[in-house]
């Protein structure tokens, strides 16, 4: 959960806060139990001490990790609901808790530290992402999105002149930024899965600036030597700024490819202009990348009989995990730009083409397919290099888009295996993407020579 922001807020600070705040304790236990319950890898390979041996025995028990995950999730929800309930001062009675998806998470809440509620909600979002529970995942994200107005208005953080004089960040600011970026990446992925627009306002530049993105008024990265420019930023922080910029661009692209509203004619009139703007922004972003975003090593893998594919024969190694994730997202974006390219902008249809020239549709399709396969191979090569778990967690949607570009049964089989390995080893659902790909390919696991899996019996509700 700290992968994008890079400070150890969820992996370290939350553990300290959990000692005093049951909400964080219950939410963290829920996520851990659910993830362990959904893993198909034997826990015996992970055991390191006596306590872990005891935990591993729970997997063989009557209840299992899934039950404990659901139990602690319910306890976290109840704790959160109590903290946001309206209290009648006269009768001293607590009314029915407000819906978590109504956006009242921080409003009228005086029983719990608002920052704790923000972090707790982020963990609950992660809980729902593990199983891609569409409605619950969406509900928590919608609730969190309503908090952004409070962040933007400064309603949550009270300036502390003592801290500001010594160090520009208080812990509350760090928690806020960690929560924001965790929300944004989940909002991006859930919106893409649900084929809807993102909840975060990509045009609210002040919000993005407050959360650490160095951005000019035209929406581009401030690549200059001004105090708030990229060139004036310490070198170790530039990679993070560039990653933030790519995530914002990808949010804009997800908004672009979302289904059109009822006002079709108006949207179509701006379709080409909007697409051209987005494509130019990705081009500009690529031109200012630091060396960290280029693979440190490219290796050809030995081909086995069932892996004779140019999509799966390379590994791209990155020394910076954040950069490898960012490049996966970049190649995902490039594939989406090719897939959703307006017909007026296809090669051979531009105004510069001779009036007498005929449009070679087959040649155009082959050109697009070749570019799609290149970007798909880049995503697959990054995962082939067995990056850390945090990178694999964010690989599901890029792999899905790469899978749409697989045209042979062998490529399709290898792609499904890659998605299934992520679920087996990390305990995060990928079967919904497997089903989508099989449907689009008009094939089945049996046809591809793969095992037809039953639902994981340990999966939490």
From TrEMBL:
UniProt keyword annotation of Aminoacyl-tRNA synthetase present: no
Record GO cellular component, one term: nucleus
Source taxon at top rank: Eukaryota
Record field: transmembrane: none
GO molecular function: DNA-binding transcription factor activity; transcription cis-regulatory region binding
Keywords of the record: Nucleus
Any one biological process term the GO annotation gives: positive regulation of transcription by RNA polymerase II
Coiled coil: none
This protein's record includes keyword Aminoacyl-tRNA synthetase: no
Protein name as annotated: Transcription factor domain-containing protein
Native organism: Pestalotiopsis fici (strain W106-1 / CGMCC3.15140)
